[in-house]
Predict the structure.
Amino acid sequence: MTIMGVTHAQHLSNIETFSVPNLSGCAPFNVSITSVISLSSTISRQYTYEGESLPTLDTFHTFNTPGTYQIHQSLGQDHQFKFDTLEITVFDPVIPDFKVNQCSGNEASVTVSDNNYDFYRVYFSANDSLEVNQGETTPSFAFGSSGTQQIRVKGFYNDGADNCGESTKSFDAINQFTPAIINTLVVSSLDNTEGAIQLNSNMPGDIDYELELAENSDSDFQPLQGVRNNVNLTISGLQTDSSYYCFRVSVFDACQNQRIYSNTLCSTALQVQPNEGYHQLSWQTGVLPNSSYELIKDGQLFKILDETMRSLRDSIVFCGVENCYSINATNGTSSSISAQVCASGLATANSPPIIDITASVDGEDVTLSWTMVNMNPEVYIIRRSRGKQPLEEIDRISNNSYTDNLPGVNISPLKYDVFYEDDCGNSSSESVVATTVHLSVAASNGNIHRLAWNTYEGWFSGVANYFLQKLNVSGGVVNEEKILSGFTQQVALTNIDNEPVSYRIKIESLDDPAKVAYSNTLILKFIPDLFFPAAFTPNGDGLNDVLEIRGTFVSSLKLNIFNRWGELIFYSEDRNNGWDGIINQRKAASGAYIYTIDFVDELGVKYSKRGTVILIR
């Protein structure tokens, strides 16, 4: 390929007394004047180049500013050719615009899109160039190898100098075009009327691709925008809620006059209409061959869809509860994800009861908690009762936990239930009734106590274990004993229990992890073991002759014995000094005598005891 240039002759002035190489050029434009006629050396030549400038003898001038100028020549007064002119045009050196058309086989052609110049020269290499007009496309040129190549284009004016704008573009010579791949399509809704689609694609090489779009069932794809090396694209201003869009990416082999296309990937326009007790889903999309379609509800797979399905009814909805849906289509290499569309359930009678309540005693209070239902409760109603009394409302709250202050946990078990009202005006059916565990002393024999408690009720899974816990005065667990059967347990206090001892029941559910509840706390104190006989026989036989007091954990005592008239007949502060049946050195008569004992244990606790003792002779 060789340069198809034009050789330009000198251009004559109006009366042909001088000439210049070019009548036009780009700034800065140099003009060199050549005289055409021979004149005597005594006749001067003077030139004016730019309007008001002073005449000069110089035959060389540079025009730095674009515009149209008159060169004026003045000769001596005695010569017939005393005045001559020539018009010069100076242009702005605009950089020409052009497009490189890549072809397979390492070929390329050039289309000039610039319209500033009369013609253009395209340089494929230092030795290969040709001239084209604006809008024309050159024949293809084969480069020697693949990879980065450069093409230079320069603009020219007719009869103009070779000093105007030029531009150079680099591109990749391609031996063979590889189709682009659209990997993912994701729809996002910006508001109720406008949406956007994000595309992730793979476009090999530094190639000019074109993104094409077809709306709904239209098979006629329209050019949308040029793309090059773009992995992520966002197309906005789309009606994604009511229309679906199909995309493909093409590359044009200009030399073969053919387009090479990527895969086609279509969006899904999903709509959700809430109805009484169900959501009606409908959608539009183009079929993605060999694909699986999944309906996602609230972030979880809800249903596998047949590719021909375009509607579905979801009846698993609850009043006031929002459900969000999307449809995912994938064929292994590409995937299309619809926008997430949400709707709240309308009024429905399907308001399930609360079936799991934990009622635990905490000091003097009862704390309640329950599993939140898959609804949208506006208010929870708490009710309470004791024994056979009917349940009565005690409070209304908005969350799923509650503390009942000072309900009398040490009196008897308490019963609770919870139901709710939603913002659609529905009331749930009554819940399970939760019953607290009440721990009490069923019977005592001195410092031996039989503890009893009732079963816990309220857990859907049921009770796994009961534990009897022994607590210290700080509330710490001293001992925990798993109760294997029955609802009674015997405990014995000893004099090593020098502080009040507390017991409570810990209850565990069968859940994993287990729920835990506690009974009321029962406080027991060790009572000093003081023995006073019901009768004694002061007859000198050595058996039971003296009325003695026996006991442990007793610090001090006072014993008083009265006759039947209330007269004090014996007094002692020594537990080892008992009454021997003598009153004023005379034997007391058989019969009943009244006694009182006041004693203090080793902790300083005072006790009193009164009774009757029988003297037998």
